[in-house]
Amino acid sequence: MRFRRILKIAINSLKLNKLRSWLTTIGIIIGISTVVIALSVGESAQNAVSKQLLAFGGSNIFAEISVPNSSHATSGIDMAAGVQITSMKESDLEAFKQLPNVKNGYAAIMSPEKVSFGNTTARSIIWATNQSYPQVENISVTKGRFFSLGEEKGLARVAVLGPKLAEDLFGDSDPIDQTIRIKQINFKVIGVLTERGTSFAFDLDDMAYIPLKTAQKQIMGMDYVTYISVSIENQNLAKQTAEDMRVLLRKRHGIPMDDPDKDDFQVTTMDDAMEMTQSIIGGVSLLLTAIAIISLIVGGVGIMNIMYVSVSERTREIGLRKAIGARGDDILWQFLLEAIAVTLAGGIIGVLGALIIIFLASLGANHYGLDWEMIISIKSIILAIGASSVIGIVFGIQPARKAAKLEAIVALTRE
């Protein structure tokens, strides 16, 4: 009963200063919202990346060209600036297929090109690859068929379209056996793939798939590839198979075995890709959480200052309560409960605000075609509510102790 009475007094005191109470909670609301959003974004991003990797080849091992003496990121920047690596060949894929754990594979080149049919033109990605691509990526054709090994070796001008590109060019019409133009060269449409969605900013449904040799000889004018993907028999041996691929490429490209910095390629397993992306996402989440913690500390200092002001303004009230029998503990709990109530209210509002922001962000991402599933972390909500309560105690205890130590006579006579 005594605790309930003290709590009621504390809440009534907050109601008398509504504007000051709301202003006090702003820092807590912002900090708590940031904590929940940061943890939710981290988990959602990891989930989205996992889906993207699975869409791009869940259990495959990838080998791609890379600038020597550079990281994955700086290699991409160098190649964007015009550095060309021409050492990876289709024969490297054939060598990979001889490794004991490699089941199948394909080589590929990507190039942005205009694809047209009649008066309709679409900007698309040309994915030049081998006939084994559907088997390695475990995808199927909804209309027609994929090109054959004979068509690939014979430099056939045939194309298989992603469903979105097919719709953009042909609408509701049947694209099979129609002729499209890629770089003013005619290609016969022989198939349409099943819908696959987006993977790492690549819309896999908005691509045109053509035979690798046809692209090399007739469109891109090159004899090398930029990307090789292999499927493996035993996923438990993925790391060993990746190392076997590295050793094989060094032998074939004349790179010293003891100097991996000179590698003109990068071999990546699914685990490697996951670790790299999770490391990046984890770093961003940690940064956001650090900002949130700073915001919470600033909010806590604000609460401490406001509580000190409140104690100074209510000195006569404290003296009067002590004069009629209130104990020091009663005064301490009154002011401490006020601080906890303010921070707890800020925590709850912050959590609700974060949930609304996350929900709207998820709707926006899905509206623009990103496969982003909203994940609300229960632990982040518990952490946020707990943190707000702790802040109330930590930053409210000193002003509350100051109020509790006031002597009744001194408090009543103070102006």
Give a structural overview.
This protein is of the alpha+beta class and 415 residues long. The protein has 14 helices and twelve strands. It has helices at 2-16, 18-55, 72-80, 90-96, 133-137, 149-153, 163-170, 212-220, 238-253, 270-313, 315-323, 328-367, 378-405, 408-413, and strands spanning 61-65, 102-117, 120-129, 141-144, 158-161, 179-182, 185-193, 198-199, 202-203, 207-211, 227-232, 265-268. The strands form two sheets. The chain has a six-stranded mixed beta barrel. The protein has a two-stranded antiparallel sheet with strand order 8-9. Strand 2 (102-117) and strand 3 form a beta hairpin. Helix 2 (18-55) runs antiparallel to helix 13.
List keywords for this structure.
alpha+beta; elongated; 415 residues; 2 domains; 14 helices; 6-stranded mixed β-barrel
Short summary:
The chain is α+β, with helices and mostly antiparallel strands.
Task: List the topology elements.
Blueprint: H1 2-16, H2 18-55, E1 61-65, H3 72-80, H4 90-96, E2 102-117, E3 120-129, H5 133-137, E4 141-144, H6 149-153, E5 158-161, H7 163-170, E6 179-182, E7 185-193, E8 198-199, E9 202-203, E10 207-211, H8 212-220, E11 227-232, H9 238-253, E12 265-268, H10 270-313, H11 315-323, H12 328-367, H13 378-405, H14 408-413
> Are there runs of 5+ residues with pLDDT below 50, and where?
74-78
Percent of residues in β-strands: 15-25%
Main sheet: strand order:
2-3-10-5-7-6
Q: Please give the number of β-strands.
A: 12
User: Shape, please?
Assistant: elongated
Kindly state the mean pLDDT as a whole number? 79
Please tell me the total number of domains.
Answer: 2
The helix/strand series, from N terminus to C terminus, equals HHEHHEEHEHEHEEEEEHEHEHHHHH
* Radius of gyration using CA atoms only: 32 Å
Indicate the structural class. Answer: alpha+beta
Helix content: 55-70%
What distance lies between the first and last C-alpha atoms, to the nearest angstrom? 33 Å
Largest sheet: number of strands, sense, barrel closure: 6 strands, mixed, barrel
